[in-house]
Design goal:
The protein is mostly helical. Helices cover about 45% and strands about 5% of the residues. It contains 8 helices and 4 strands. The two termini are about 45 Å apart.
Amino acid sequence: MWDFDHCDPRRCSGKKLSRLGLIKDLRVGQRFRGVVVTPEGKQPVSPSDRATVAAFGVAVVECSWARLSDVPFSKIRSPHERLLPYLIATNPVNYGKPWRLNCVEALAAAFYITGFDKHAETLLEKFSWGHSFWEVNQHLIERYRACDTAAEVSQMQERVISEAQADYEESRRKAREDDDGDLLVANPNHAGRISQDAEANTYSSTDSDTEEIAASMSSKLFVTD
């Protein structure tokens, strides 16, 4: 791990793993022969990286998302720089946000995708919320590791994002329909009054009765975005 001291030491997952002896610190400029998870990567982690991970491990850059411009990425060198595909953060700071994984989540994701589940679990179990990362992302991780190459992972990621967007749009459409349906229901107090009037009078509705019902309904209609 390259640590740039951007984070609160009490909340930094990378520093916690370091204190526990589960990861090692790297010096700026120090070459690393394993897979490096970095925003500077040109291709995603894929199952084809398994041999590299088995031989040399995984490294991450511990820094703040808000201060990426302060990181000298040019001095962090590896022949195996990788991006992470679309995944959802479950850490307390960025829970539910895509891409915003912290250090332990990034390491776990790389291990999961390359088939080293036990390594991922060993890291995540050190955090009370760690189990949720697999629970939330299992369906995504399994799709990525069913691929063979980085190109296939990229294609899978595109499908995942497209499906997520479609699901979001569908949920919004249904929500609008539900809202519109609720708004089209007449005020039950008005309906009760009209029903009582109908029981008290044996004649059919006149034009004035129809206008009254329409007025009570129209007061419940408005356009929502």
